[in-house]
Design brief:
alpha+beta, three-stranded antiparallel beta sheet, disordered N terminus
Length: 211
């Protein structure tokens, strides 16, 4: 009886907690972490109470979703992004190519790019963390389903540098140009910033595109 009373009391004390958490989750496809719930004044006990009452859905350890939001087909990507704390973290490389539907590549891990300045990053199973001295600029980022991902141009160049199969790069170049998500000049300039190999690979792909 005492436990029930304490939960109900906590619920009254955190009247504004759920609306605040809803605002946070709305920018993440309805998902939120245990830590985000705590920051909004919702304790683990109250979180469990809301899960039992059906207000929240427990997706996996540390990751939840508001019931009114539909599940995302990219829960693995979202969970990995949230697990790294979101600060400067962006989905990239082959994971970004897949989300943007630019190629047929099937990533063998969730690819995330983080600033080189980040320290003490957790080791997450099924996640490939890329640290880069090249900042991910505002123009390098787009958002899909509440997840920040690298733009078509950045995703293609990063994937090419990381060793994605040339035929997949060629497909991504063709798709990106055809949809107006990248231009030939953008791709040429960004490829030259990397290496001769990347410049040659992208140039070869661009040569196949109509002028």
């Amino acid at each position: 009886m005492g436990d029930v009373f304490s939960i109900e009391a906590s619920s009254r004390d955190t009247t504004n907690g759920r609306p605040r958490l809803f605002d946070v989750a709305s920018g993440q496809g309805g998902y939120f972490t245990t830590e985000q719930a705590r920051e909004c004044g919702i304790s683990r006990a109250l979180l469990a109470h809301h899960v039992k009452g059906g207000r929240f859905m427990r997706v996996r350890r540390g990751l939840y979703r508001f019931r009114e939001y539909p599940p995302s087909p990219r829960e693995e990507v979202l969970a990995a992004w949230l697990a790294l704390g979101r600060d400067g973290v962006v989905v990239s490389h082959e994971s970004a190519l897949e989300i943007l539907d630019l190629s047929d590549v099937i990533p063998n891990a969730v690819h995330l790019t983080v600033p080189r300045s980040r320290r003490n990053l957790p080791s997450l199973p099924g996640v490939k963390i890329h640290t880069s001295s090249r900042p991910v600029l505002v123009g390098d980022i787009t958002v899909r389903d509440g997840i920040p991902i690298t733009s078509a141009t950045r995703s293609i160049i990063d994937s090419a540098e990381a060793g994605t199969a040339p035929e997949q790069i060629e497909m991504a170049v063709a798709q990106a140009i055809g949809r107006g998500q990248a231009t030939k000049d953008q791709l040429r300039v960004r490829a030259r910033e990397r290496s001769r190999r990347i410049a040659a690979l992208v140039s070869h792909a661009l040569d196949k595109e109509p002028t």
